Amino acid sequence: MVIFDTNAILRYVLRDDLAMLAEVKKQLLREDCFIPVEVVAEIVYVLSKTYSVERNVITKILTDIANVNTINISNTNVVLHALKVYASSTLDFVDCLLIGYAKKNGYTIFTFDKKMQKFL
Question: What CA–CA distance (Å, rounded) separates 10 from 49?
């Protein structure tokens, strides 16, 4: 299994370096690929803060990536739930992940964050 980092996935999403894009696509076709939840969080951060991509667009992009047969995302159900919350809120993505863990895995989240508590 090949673990993809943020940079590789961003080249795939942004298509800003055609040579790197070709390498990423080739790898996606040959191997089972793994994207850790930490990389997903960094992708969300970079797309939103550096490239000013809207939340609903980020959600669509990462949901589409999660549906590629050769790509495995850690805690997929948690990540997909977090993306839905992220698209419909002003919460930071990490808070959305915590909500995903609570909703999908039954975890109790200890927080003083009143905005997050509304989603729990």
Answer: 13
